[in-house]
Design a protein that fits this description.
- Keywords: Acyltransferase, Transferase.
- With about 180 residues, the chain is of the alpha+beta class.
- The protein has helices spanning about 20-30, 45-55, 110-125, 140-150, 170-180, and strands at about 1-5, 10-15, 60-65, 70-75, 95-100, 130-135, 155-160, 165-170.
- It is built from 5 helices and 8 strands, in the order ββααβββαβαββα.
- Strand 5 (about 95-100), helix 3 (about 110-125) and strand 6 form a beta-alpha-beta unit.
- The protein is globular, with a radius of gyration of 15 Å.
- The two termini are about 15 Å apart.
């Protein structure tokens, strides 16, 4: 993916679990990443988690770059096999998504919205993707607002082993309608 946005070019590359682990560790343990639930993770925990994802047939992790520099993490997964098994009835073309924007001391206005929009464009670039599924913590109001901004509609609260989540969906048509003004 390579997307030009109001904040500059955003691209993704496959995550390298070992080479990227130290940087990821600094991101996922930062206080702003509390909803990522890795606050107490050691470097080896992060390496192991992303090696597990890299080896998984139905879960993928990508390093997001802004002007060529690491700036966000993107994960996609098949909810029939990962994260949401038994918690809802998946439809053909469902793709699960997680994203995390790197902490910064110099925030760029509109950056996180640009990232989630680019992530969604990347997911919908695959014609097999019909709907994107997310399950953020019910208390993560900032991400709920972002999700709504790109077309997600909340469906129901679900209980996962690690959290109470707000299951939400976004079809290609909902995404295109929500982002038509920002293109």
């Amino acid at each position: 993916m390579s997307t030009t946005t109001a904040v500059g070019p955003l691209t993704v590359r496959p995550l390298d679990p070992l080479a990227d682990a130290e940087l990821l560790h600094s991101w996922v343990t930062h206080p702003k990443a509390a909803f990522w639930m890795m606050q107490d993770a050691k470097l080896q925990d992060v390496e192991r988690e992303y090696m597990r994802i890299a080896a998984h047939e139905h879960h993928h992790a990508f390093m997001g770059l802004h002007d060529g520099e690491p700036a966000f993490l993107m994960e996609s997964y098949d909810p029939r096999y990962v994260e949401l098994v038994g918690l809802y009835e998946p439809e053909p073309g469902d793709v699960g998504m997680h994203f995390l924007v790197a902490p910064t001391d110099r925030p760029v206005h509109g950056f996180t919205l640009a990232v989630i929009t680019a992530v969604m464009r990347e997911l919908f670039a695959d014609p097999a993707t019909k709907r994107v599924v997310v399950e953020p913590d019910v208390g993560n109001s900032a991400v709920h607002r972002l999700n709504e901004a790109v077309g997600f509609v909340a469906a129901e609260k679900i209980v996962k082993p690690e959290k109470e989540a707000l299951l939400s969906f976004c079809t290609r048509e909902q995404f295109e309608a929500a982002t038509a003004v920002t293109r």
